[in-house]
Amino acid sequence: MVGFLAFIFVFGLLVTVHELGHLIFAKRAGIMCPEFAIGMGPKIFSYKKNETLYTIRLLPVGGYVMMAGSGMEENPLKQGMQVDVKRNDEGEVTHIILDDQHQFQQIEQLEVIDSDFDDAMFIEGVNQYTNEQERLNIAETAYFVREGDLIQIAPPSKQFRTKKPWPKFLTLFAGPFFNFLLTLVLCIIIAFIVGSPTNTVGEVAKDSPALSAGLKQGDTIVQLNDEKIDSFRDIKSYLQNNGDKSISVTVERNGKKETMQLKPDKVEVKVSKTKTQTSYQIGFMPKKTFSLTDPFIDGFNETMRYATLIFTLLIELFTSIFTGGFSFDMLNGPVGIYKFTDSVAQQGFLPLLGLAAMLSVNIGIMNLIPIPALDGGRILFVLYEAIFRRPVNKRVEMIIVGAGVVFMFFVMIMVTWNDISRYFLK
After folding, report:
1. Is residue 272 part of a domain?
2. Which of 60, 115, 312, 404 is most buried, by CB atoms within 10 Å?
3. Are 378 and 304 found together in one domain?
4. Name one Pfam family in it (predicted).
């Protein structure tokens, strides 16, 4: 149960922040957003504010902001469909009723022949009461009525496709950017809670170079070879650049300076099937301090470390496709993330926040991959429009996006099945 709640918390946080970025910048650009959804599948909760319906859906496998004119929405009217419509005093359609869950009166029934909700804004059909063919204009403020909800029909001026490239770019980029911001905020929060490491020794590890050299608790490292040390970051940076060469360590102990020699240990951690991360350690835990400024620096550095690691692994993933080393074991879907979240949640809340921070930057980077179904692919269309002063042909764009959706669906199915086989069918 703890693992499930932890997964819902992490999933909800990451998806909500990502989609909130899209929503905020879409609204700033004047783009109408009929729905903001967390999850996929059947709706289990909804709340309407202004023109946006906020929903929580059953399946925790994603989320979306439905932006008018973005290509995500589909015209619900098909030729031959019978719908009810309500008109205003000017004869314009104010409501297109798609089910019988309503209490509207003075409505008319049409058998649909044609409709356009992008440019011409009309519905054409045969009036079932007069048996006459009519072409009705859509009012400036009009709605689809479905499952008791009013879904506003966006006029052309409030559609994504009519906006200039820069607002489009910001709207699309905002989702990944908010994930990067979330990682930074979580890393700063963690740094505030656990404190910032200093260049003072808090604990010396057993069987370590530090213990052998005589380093003691309370010692403050002030110099490594000829380089002055002011912080724990200075120590890490120097050790990484120096490698496993012997170094002279100068410490302050009881008001006096002492110098000792030691050789750092080389520590290798496997972060993927083919990549190993190397660090150099002398074997001590730093004393922590609590301040108002250091957590911001530590949080930023940790965010950059996560981003660098994820980006490196992503490059390795794409390289493996062409070198023949690719395996679906290199990917994790919702099932794999659930299992990993479950194991981390057993360690406590802080490790869970750390996992959320890493997954957030991962979602941000992954969404910027130029695959048509992702934000990165849609940004490519916007860049094309900015360079050539015209949008991509709508039919071509739909074909490319459709192919991207099919590809992503195939990958998701394969990854999910691989996760199920790996964790439950052994």
Report:
1. yes
2. 115
3. yes
4. Peptidase_M50
Phi-psi region of 32 (alpha: psi -120 to 50; beta: other; left: phi over 0): beta
| The model's pTM | 0.81
Q: Find, among 320, 322, 315, the residue nearest to 365 by Cα.
A: 315
Please give the structure tokens belonging to residue 268.
């290798």
The Cα angle at residue 23 between residues 21 and 26, in degrees rounded to 5: 105
Query: pLDDT digits over 244-302, tens only?
Result: 889 999 999 988 999 999 999 988 876 555 667 788 899 999 998 888 888 998 899 99
Cα 277 to Cα 120: distance, rounded to the nearest angstrom? 58
183/166 Cα distance (integer angstroms): 25
Write down which residue in 97, 129, 158 finishes a domain. Answer: 158
Tally Cβ neighbours within 10 Å of residue 373. Answer: 19
**Cβ 111 vs Cβ 82: under 8 Å:** yes
Helix (H, G, I), strand (E, B) or coil at 293: coil
Under 8 Å between Cβ of 72 and 54: no
Tokens of 77: 């009217």
Q: Which of 180, 175, 179, 178 is nearest to 300 (CA)?
A: 180
Pair 346, 250 in one domain = no
**92 and 152 belong to one structural domain:** yes
**Residue 212 identity:** S
Pick 163 or 105 by higher pLDDT: 163
Instruction: Report the mean per-residue pLDDT for the chain.
Output: 87
Residue identified by tokens 């809670």 is 193
Determine the Cα–Cα distance for residues 255 and 395; give it in Å rounded to an integer: 76
Residue count (the chain) = 426
Mean pLDDT, rounded, for 214-232: 91
Structural domain of residue 272, as residue ranges? 197-289
Q: Counting beta carbons within 10 angstroms of the beta carbon of residue 183, is it exposed (0 to 12), middle (13 to 18) or buried (19 or more)?
A: buried
Asked if 276 and 270 count as a contact pair (C-beta separation under 8 A), the reply is yes
Q: Which of 292, 278, 213, 296 is nearest to 248 (CA)?
A: 213
The neighbour count for residue 333, using CB atoms within 10 Å, is 19
Q: Is residue 74 part of a domain?
A: no
Tokens representing 66? 């439905």
